[in-house]
Predict the 3D structure of the following.
Amino acid sequence: MPEGHTIHRLALDHRSRFEGAPVRASSPQGKFADGAALVDGQVMTTAEAHGKHLFLGFGPPRTSDELRSRGYPHRWIHVHLGLFGKLGFGAAPAPPPTDTVRLRLANPSAYADLRGPTTCALITEDEKHAIHDRLGPDPLRPGDDGTRAWQRISRSRTTIAALLLDQKIIAGVGNVYRAEVLFRHGIDPYRPGRDLARGEWDAIWADLVFLMAEGVRHNRIDTVRPEHLPEAMGRPPRVDDHGGEVYVYRRDRQGCHICGAEIRTAGLAARNLFWCPGCQPSTGG
């Protein structure tokens, strides 16, 4: 499942290609035909992300400050890619769509095809607010900070590794960022949230803000500090279809770049957890 930086990048990609002009919308697959018909020919006014949720806003042309003050866009396409969804872009002219395309957006210069999402629905402003309300703060959303997440983490007996994947607590963090940020701060993934110090949490949040913003900028996840990159350490670069240089993610049974201990893996919160027992020592009794 894509992590939050990917969804924020998709929002940027939509804005750069479609914002501020009428967009043709269709559903070659047919499953979103009614929704596509309602926004077909309307202006895409914005695109934004919250965690792993993408929102594409549509409304009448914004011709004045008065229109903006009345709350446009008045319709949103809500997309959650889930495990199998894909969203790709291309330059016009768009080729004939396949029957797997749930939603195609197109204008004279570009097109976007959405396939296999868990969610593709036309929602109102109130329904959009309800989605935001059930999500935790997002390290990539302006104005969000880690305080609300800390209020829940600091009272929880649940492991910090599980809490980081709970989208109601913090939105957008997935399996890669979970493993990597805990490694970067030497945190035992099995430590209960309530045993974390506030300073430790603030450092984790700040690091997520930095790492995920870099993920948006480079369109991939890189978590290794400059002094541990292959060229600095004289080691081979990582070869993995995930891409990017990482410390522990999907490196089970390999040696830690820093201490040499064997990276471990175990199931936690329905996902594979990766950590280094040398750099992230257990704090349990």
Notes: The domain at 4-134 is CATH 3.20.190.10 (N-terminal domain of MutM-like DNA repair proteins). The mean pLDDT is 93. Residues 198-218 form the longest helix (21 residues).
